[in-house]
Amino acid sequence: MTEHFPDNFLWGASTSAYQIEGAVAEDGRGPSIWDTFSHQPGNVLGDDTGDVACDHYHRWPEDVALMRELGIGAYRLSTAWPRILPEGRGRPNPRGLEFYDRLVDAVMAENIEPWVCLYHWDLPQALEDRGGWQNRDVASWFAEYAAVTARRLGDRVKHWATFNEPNAASVLGYCEGKHAPGIRGRESALKAIHVMNLAHGLGTEAMRSERADLMIGNIYNFHPREPASEREEDEIAAIMLDALWNRSFPDPQIHGAYPEPLAAEMEALIQPGDLDLIKRPLDYFAFNHYTRSRVRRDPDHPFEVGTVPPEPGAPVTEMGWEIAPSAFRQVLIEAKERYAGEMPIYVLENGAAFPDVIDVDGRIRDEQRIAYLRGYLGAVLDAIAAGVSVRGYFVWSLLDNFEWAFGYSRRFGLVHIDFATLERRLKDSFHFYAELAHGAALERE
Asked: How far apart are CA 34 and CA 40, in angstroms?
């Protein structure tokens, strides 16, 4: 069966600054929490760091040429807060702004629309030293950063996001300690969630005060959380993890209230007017999705939640994540019903890591990734048929990159990176995606 995507469907690819740029100490960039965290032994697999990553900071012309060949209509990047404001606040770094100027202009010269995300987890270390996302003042400093960046790029960049997956940044960074800055605790997590929500609201208003024509959103992450058993404690844990992971940002940002399992504890952090600041009208609804998970009670976790592996025999990616396109279809439908309403919906990350092999002929036949993309794009078509206004899909990722705590051991890219030589090599999935971006129908099973 073959199906075409709607006319004007937007095909894109996504990356993030710390994962690809490298050049962490060049041209005035200050250190981020991920520079600090990754240089502490044991935090990242193989003790890898993002010091060089894909060296995109120097090789961006080559990467923009790859985007042109891929045929995408949009490219979602993130700006690095410590490259633009090395101390997190104060005087902007002109060389940092000039880098994004050049990149945006080059992308647009190829008729590719740049989408900019302001925060993809790289908080300036100088602000973490002041309490990081547990300090309410950081929300105002984020708004200053948002204003500086929108003032410089907003004449060309029309689609903006305040945060990428603030749930992951807060839960993994300030609750479980698995990501930078490596803090573990319940109270620290709740503070980080609330301050990031405040930053979204203040940042949105700061950008709108710079330019009234910007399209502003936030990039959520939705992973269905299902109880691992019929035990009441697992069902309670699933409800809590759903609130913590899936709802702690879109609920207050769109509905003006924290989800019930967290609401009572949040009351101590909420000051008069906070929820009004957080609830800002969005111009589009965006989210990322990779998998679903089974939840059990874990008394050692700050919120007494944990996950168990997929059922034996279930297909998984190299991350151990279950491949379940039906869950993606359901997430799209629920996003419309619960949050988006009539807003256009964009999937800004979806993709899979698999162990890629370069064959003797130099080709990378990543059939597993193609099958994954085929299944998940089929779910997008099913959701559109069910009335969900999905306007675009951005694959994660354009390039293999620094995959956070997994270092360089997990590859999500359509383009293979040899991290020793930095050579770029197109995978078969690149050609598969390029055909779709150029207008081909999706072949479905």
From this structure: 10
